[in-house]
Amino acid sequence: MRLYCGWLAVHATLCLAQPIPSYYWTEVESRFSRRPDTLYVLNFWSTWCRPCVTELPLLQAAYETLRVQLPVQIWLISLDFPPDGAQKAYQLLKQKRIHLPALWLNESDPNRWIPRIDPTWDGAIPYTKAWNVPVKHTADFSSVEEVMAFVKAAYDALKRTDRR
Amino acid sequence: MMRLSVLIVGSLVLSGVKVGDKAPDFSLKNVDGKIVSLSDYAKEKGVIVIFTCNHCPYAKLYEERIIALHKEFAPKGFPVVAINPNAPEIVPEDSYENMQKRAKEKNYPFPYLFDEKQEVARAYGATKTPHVFLLQNQENGFSVAYIGAIDDNPNDPKKVQKRYLAEAIEALIAGKPVPVSETKAIGCSVKYRK
Questions:
Q1: Distance from CA of A83 to the nearest CA of B (A)
Q2: What are phi and psi of B117, to 5 degrees?
Q3: pTM higher than 0.95
Q4: Are the beta carbons of A109 and B152 separated by less than 8 Å?
Q5: CB-CB: which of A48, A115, A153 is closest to B7?
Q6: A77, A24 in Cβ contact below 8 A?
Q7: How does strand A102-105 pair with strand A22-23?
């Protein structure tokens, strides 16, 4: 089922009627390099990863508070397996009422893309990284405050990069 | 100037081993109740240490391939030793009793050890399951020759193009340098006690 997510969508949850898009890594790179003034926080997760699923509401709650303060977007990048990974991720987000933007990564070998985001990340998830900023979180978040502190630290780092 | 420092917020910092390091010894309880130590393998050419567990979908996807690796490489001097590093109070499916069940169901031809205190996983720096540490037996003991993934396609064994681990073992057997000594793999985080 597909519904428009633009002006026809009167409520954010309606947007989720559209299954999450599938991206190759190169598309991820171009997607998040468009607006250097926006902080993109990328959360790598999977429906089968329990701590990942547990922290989704924390990410959403932090975003709801921070969105009015900072130009930030928190993206959920699903690493669920093909062929139905995007569908599984979409179903779970819908069920949990998570309306953060999401995409499904269509890559099978992490050695092709992990080194491009962070050569020191060995692939354990959950993993959260600010795009183009060397701020990351290599475990699950345990509170909304922890997510907010992370996003603020990332934003400060982004601002420092801007000034340079 | 580029900022090279990376800010890691609130994460567990594990030191662990690097390729070339001496392999930390271990003595852990196997599913049959007996203690298995790295030193038991002194006559082998090496050991394939794999941190894995019962519950993780990635670990499950690799179960059959780990059994096949043992069958292929144990006769060539590289047997598999599987170690479950997860705290069962965090993931009950990874308890010792459940390990025993799984080993029996799947008829594991290799030891499946319980790292109850998580000291071995910490010493190696295991962060996820499955996480491979290929050890090479040299004159002065075991050293780490390869760290990372089993191959390049967890989801579909038929679509595997690069058998990273197998290629590393074959290189060691041939006395050649390991072509790729570190690889990335997605996996379930090791459930460490905080």
A1: 9
A2: -85, -5
A3: no
A4: yes
A5: A153
A6: no
A7: parallel
Q: Which of A110, A138, A157 minimises the CB distance to B184?
A: A110
B162 contacts on A by Cβ (under 8 Å): 109
**Do A125 and B12 make contact, defined as CB atoms within 8 angstroms?**
no
Contact A133, A151 (CB under 8 A): no
Rounded to an integer, what is the distance from CA B163 to the centroid of its chain? 15
- Higher-confidence residue of A113 and A5: namely A113
Q: Are the Cβ atoms of B153 and A109 closer than 8 angstroms?
A: yes
Residue at A74: amino acid letter: I
Per the CB < 8 A criterion, the answer to whether B54 and B85 are in contact is: no
Q: Which chain A residues contact residue B148 at CB under 8 A?
A: 122
Q: How big, in percent rounded to 5, are the helix, strand and coil portions of chain A?
A: 40, 20, 40
Distances from the Cα of B191 to the Cα of A17, B30, B69, B102, B185, angstroms: 34, 19, 25, 19, 17
Question: Which ipTM score applies to this complex?
Answer: 0.75
Residue holding tokens 């475990």? A139
Is a pLDDT exceeding 50 seen at residue B1? no
Angle at B153 between CA A111 and CA B190, to 5 degrees: 75
Amino acid (1-letter code) at residue B54: N
Distance CA A23, CA A30 (A): 11
Task: Write down the pLDDT at residue B96.
Answer: 98
- Written as one letter, the residue type at B100 is Q
Residue B43 in this model has a pLDDT that exceeds 90: yes
The pLDDT tens digits for A120-144 are 998 999 999 999 999 999 989 999 9
Encoding tokens for residue B87?
């705290």
Nearest CA in chain A to B191: A51
Alpha helices in chain B (DSSP H): 57-73, 96-106, 119-124, 164-173
